[in-house]
């Protein structure tokens, strides 16, 4: 019988975090769960930090890419090679909550129509119950989700049967776009509610953050920050705040994410960039 959950963690220049994030993931595994570890680049400090764990029996696979190939190839490496019932991913700068795998697997088992169930990484003060209430729904087995057609690419659990049915990430496809593709096919995605927290250590408000000033931000430069032209801690924090609100207000009408509505949103983003205003994630 195969594993229950295979979890991929991608590391890159993360020695300051991975000594916390990798042990935390390992602590949350059940007896039939494993971690697939992929390292991007040649940062010796990170390689040294993960070296003691490579012999751990809970590490199913290790791959070292000399090039920083970002996130798509490692994700497809897991999805294509795993024979587990579920696949998951945790970023090297994130701390998952104890029990997250057991809870999310139970939610999937009770609701075969679920696609991707995710953790929540935003501070309590950014939850707007008056806004989010319309998106919070109850499902079989006493489980609830704050539905959204996409979730973040860390701290999630997805049935491997979804990959069998819908394929791998496309050459230019983001995880968010993949989630929307699943939603169009009838799958229900969202954040488990009450929220299961995932601490994002690259959030300047995290107790474990390494981003204490603008220089540190430029040195680390999270992918989402780089994609949105962020250059200061203030801008990065503001982007994270907007992201939390967006997830609680994003419409569930799938027509919003295709056709003329999608083109209109793209145009608005380009206008904001041209006028020097920060793009919204």
TrEMBL record:
Record has ATP-binding as a keyword: no
Single GO MF annotation: transferase activity
SUPFAM superfamilies noted in UniProt: Nucleotide-diphospho-sugar transferases
Domain of life assignment: Bacteria
UniProt keyword Transferase present: yes
UniProt KW keywords: Transferase
Pfam family, one: Glycos_transf_2
Domain Glycosyltransferase 2-like: 7-143
InterPro entries named in the record: Glyco_trans_2-like (IPR001173), Nucleotide-diphossugar_trans (IPR029044)
Protein name: Glycosyltransferase
């Amino acid at each position: 019988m195969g594993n229950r959950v295979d979890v991929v963690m991608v590391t890159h220049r993360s020695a300051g975090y991975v000594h916390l994030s990798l042990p935390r993931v390992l602590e949350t595994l059940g007896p039939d769960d494993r971690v697939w570890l992929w390292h991007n680049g040649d940062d010796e400090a990170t390689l040294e930090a993960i070296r003691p764990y490579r012999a751990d029996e809970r590490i199913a696979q290790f791959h070292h890419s000399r090039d920083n190939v970002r996130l798509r190839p490692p994700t497809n490496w897991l999805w294509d090679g795993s024979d587990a019932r579920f696949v998951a991913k945790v970023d090297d700068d994130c701390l998952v909550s104890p029990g997250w795998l057991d809870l999310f697997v139970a939610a999937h088992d009770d609701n075969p129509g679920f696609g991707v169930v995710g953790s929540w990484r935003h501070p309590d003060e950014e939850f707007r119950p008056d806004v989010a209430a319309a998106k919070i729904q109850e499902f079989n087995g006493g489980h609830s989700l704050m539905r959204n057609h996409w979730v973040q690419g860390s701290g999630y659990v997805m049935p491997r049967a979804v990959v069998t049915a819908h394929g791998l990430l496309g050459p230019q496809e983001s995880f968010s776009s993949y989630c929307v593709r699943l939603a169009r096919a009838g799958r229900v995605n969202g954040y488990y509610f009450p929220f299961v927290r995932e601490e994002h250590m690259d959030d300047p408000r995290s107790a474990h953050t390494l981003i204490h000033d603008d220089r540190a931000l430029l040195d680390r430069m999270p992918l989402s920050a780089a994609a949105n032209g962020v250059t200061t801690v203030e801008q990065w924090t503001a982007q994270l705040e907007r992201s939390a609100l967006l997830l609680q207000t994003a419409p569930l009408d799938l027509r919003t994410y295709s056709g003329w509505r999608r083109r209109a949103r793209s145009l608005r983003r380009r206008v904001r960039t041209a006028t020097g205003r920060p793009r919204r994630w």
